[in-house]
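Weekly puzzle thread! Below is a chain. First person to post its structure in token form gets bragging rights.
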Amino acid sequence: MRVAQRASIVAEELERCFPNPRVPLDHSSAFTLLIAVMLSARCTDERVNKVTPALFRVAPTAQELAKMEPVEVRPYIATCGLADSKALHLVQTARILTERFHGQVPQSFEELESLPGVGHKTASVVMNQAFGHPAFPVDTHIFRLARRWGLSHGSTVERVEADLKRIFPMQSWGELHLRLILWGRTYCTARGCKPPCAICSRLKV
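Winning reply:
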């Protein structure tokens, strides 16, 4: 089966199952989305959503978070894992946003990726979900599914991202990213896909 046929089947099933996907991280602004995505590294979205309400009550803006010290932030995010480094990065990022960007989250990949603790995937999520910029963030679920379904044979996140961007229309990237994550968590997990899910069945994986 050609890659284009595989992509069509994947897109069809994902849209049928998740017609209106939503960002799984609770947020109310570009800033709170950025913080939530930073916290989600090596942590579940469910856990992040449990800790951010208390954090955002005391620090809903970059200016407020910039006033805190990492040791003050750490108790709010202790259960997220890597709490020490995350607390440091959150405060450093908030101070940079306050000092250089008037407290606003910048709307460019280059500026976002210059912030402490912000990599390409985090920047991609913020650029797409907060600002509507075409981006295709690739997390572990998407990396696994793209290779499992023969959409990419890339051995790196960068290669898989490039392959997916080439295969799928740009206007679909944002929702497709969310649908792939939901599918990977719900039907086609890292532990396997037994019995085969609807997509694996149709692709004869």
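Puzzle host: Confirmed. Bonus trivia for everyone else. The CA atoms of residues 149 and 205 lie 7 Å apart.
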